[in-house]
Amino acid sequence: MRLRGGSSQAEVDEMLQTLINKSPIMLFMKGSPSQPQCGFSKQMVSLLQRHNIEFDHFDILQDDLVRQELKRFSKWATYPQLYVNGELVGGLDICKELVEAGELEKYCKVAMEKKQITPGLIENKLTQALDATLVKAEDLSDGCGMKFSILIVSPRFDGMPLVERHRAVHAALEKETPDIHALTLKCLTPQQHQAATAS
Questions:
Q1: What is the CATH number of domain 119-198?
Q2: If we measure between CA atoms, which residue out of 51, 32, 142 comes closest to residue 103?
Q3: How many whole angstroms separate alpha carbon 159 and alpha carbon 21?
Q4: How far apart are alpha carbons 148 and 137 in whole angstroms?
């Protein structure tokens, strides 16, 4: 993802937040983990790897607009910058302090264990659980995985009351529903879906 010059500040901020939310643990650094381009980034990568913390990264040297705008957005003037669950933790010195306090690994482990709920994850689970011929899930929470609109087309729904169809969907997503704040469901048989698309 690259930011475009000429975008409004609101658009830039939205794109930066999307980039930050790309992974539960996101490191903005100079270079890549295999080829860091500054000593601080190299130390940060080493620190995270030493504590078995899985992270994604963004090379700020590849996008000057991200490099400049993220400093404004985060109110943090230097790199690397570490984000956990979309929130800035800080730079190398802060992370070293968290390591000494025994907090960094604990903090990051929670983020790693919290599996991101995505439209793809929902579509795969419902397709398998309900023998669905079509599942379309849309995240209505700006990529946060908390609010979804889902269309499910399955022959299993034939002769099944609407409330039972909804129960079947919730049962299939039993592990995910505690983290989902709202679900809008449209449960159709293949015949109902065909009639709806034909009209």
A1: 3.30.300.90
A2: 51
A3: 42
A4: 7
What is the token pair recorded at 109? 């482990």
Give Cα 74 distance to the centre of its chain: 19
Q: Is 67 left (phi over 0), alpha (psi -120 to 50) or beta?
A: alpha
List the chain domain ranges: 9-112, 119-198
pLDDT tens per residue across span 84-122? 988 999 999 999 999 999 899 888 887 776 666 878 778
Q: Indicate whether this model's pTM tops 0.85.
A: no
pLDDT for residue 114: 63
| Alpha helix positions (H), 64-139 | 64-74, 92-100, 104-113, 119-130
Phi/psi for 26 (5° steps) reads -125, 125
Closest CA to 85 of 122, 51, 45, 56: 56
Q: Work out the angle between the directed axes of helices 104-113 and 92-100 (0-180°, nearest 10).
A: 100
Yes or no: domain 9-112 corresponds to CATH 3.90.550.10: no
